[in-house]
Structure formats: C-alpha cells, structure tokens
Amino acid sequence: MIFEELEVWFDPVARAGPEAMAVDEWLLGIRERPLLRIYGWDGKWGSLGYFGNLQEARDRMPGLEWVRRWTGGGTVDHSEDWTYSLIVPKGHAVAELKGGESYRQIHEVLVRVLRDEVGTVSLSTGGGEDSGSCFENPVEYDVEDGTGTKLAGAAQRRGKFGLLHQGSVLCAGGDWRLRGEIFTESLAKSWSEEEIFVDERRVAELVKRKYGAQNWLERC
C-alpha cells in the first residue's frame, strides 16, 4: 500500500483529448487529498508527451486526433486503452518521491492487479529511450507480459501543486470499473468513491488557452 487514504473518481463523461488533459491539470490545482481518476475518451485520440514531435506521431499512428500532454513520455494510442490519472497533492509522501521511485511503486501495484487478468506480468528492466511509440519501447519500470510485450506505461509531472501521474494500460478488455476498484484497493489502506463536479469554466479556459490551442499542439 502506498497511500494511507485514496479517493477514486470514475469519470462518467467520455471527453475529447484537450478536455481530458485540462481536467487533470484542473484537479492537480485544487486537490487536497490524493485522487485516482479513471476515464474514457470521446473518439479516437492519441496523446504525445510534452517534448514529443507531432509529425512523427501522426506518421506513426495515422487516423488519430492528437493532444499534447503536460507530462513527458512517448506517444500513446488511446482508442482502445484503459486510462487513469493519479493526482497527488504536494506534501503527500508519494509526491515527494523521486520520479523513478514513484513510477516503480505505482507500477508494482499495477503488476499485481494485471497478474490476475493476464497471467505472467512483471516490471521491465528498461533499456529503451522514453520516445517514439510508448508501447513499442518499454523503459525501466514499465509493465510487460511474459513475452516482453509492454502492457502499461505512464508519464509524470511534478510542480508546485504536487504530482500528476498519467497512465495507460494496453489490455483494455474486461470490466474497466472492476479493474479500477481492485487497483484502488491495492494502492491504499482505505479508499472511497468520489463524485466530482467539474468546474466547466476553468476547464474550458485551459482547453482554449492550452490543450486545444494549435500552438500548444505544435510546440515542438
């Protein structure tokens, strides 16, 4: 268990890429307690990391709409994945860990969850660079199956408000809510489900100013 207490929000709204990213940033700015958000996408979206190359992403994964994340990492096809975010406010123990250590601890929990679904699962020993297609190039502490195929990866950002950890799981079949409940139970000693009322005005501002803006998408 890496959290004493954790709230989980099964976001009932499938959102377009810019709005999905804006909600995460908004949450990071207002949360006082750690939150696990599990959500879906409206349409066929891909995301690229803060430093990612948009043209390379388009060439590699044609047919997707694209949004640039606030976090790092490679390109991810979200059209069939299971997506979650962990929002950990500043001052909580997980937010104060170094990047590799928080990544490892969260993914160790995810390994145990996915083991019950797909069998042999382990943490990658890495060796690749965190660029290109996220699921073609496992890096240290990603989650992979017995054949070395990457099943889950994530990207993080730390700042004055705390830690944002955005994760993607390739095996998207099964009961997405049940997986979320098991993941939450495995992350925290105690947890509760939260109903969150999104500040639509603030989220819309973030979409207009950042995530939906062409200069943000094409920044690299």
Task: Classify the fold: give the CATH topology.
Answer: BirA Bifunctional Protein, domain 2
Mean pLDDT reading: 93
Number of helices: 7
Distance between the termini: 38 Å
Q: Considering the protein shown, what is the CATH homologous superfamily?
A: Bira Bifunctional Protein, Domain 2
Q: What percent of residues adopt helix (DSSP H or I)?
A: 25-40%
Low-confidence stretches: none
Structural class, from secondary structure content?
alpha/beta
Integer tally of domains:
1
Question: Which helices and strands occur, and which strands form pairs?
Answer:
Blueprint: E1 3-10, H1 17-30, E2 35-39, E3 45-48, H2 54-60, E4 65-68, E5 76-77, E6 82-89, H3 93-96, H4 99-118, E7 121-123, E8 143-145, E9 150-159, E10 162-169, H5 176-187, E11 188-193, H6 200-211, H7 214-217
Parallel strand pairs: 1-2, 1-11, 3-4
Antiparallel strand pairs: 2-6, 3-5, 6-10, 7-8, 8-9, 9-10
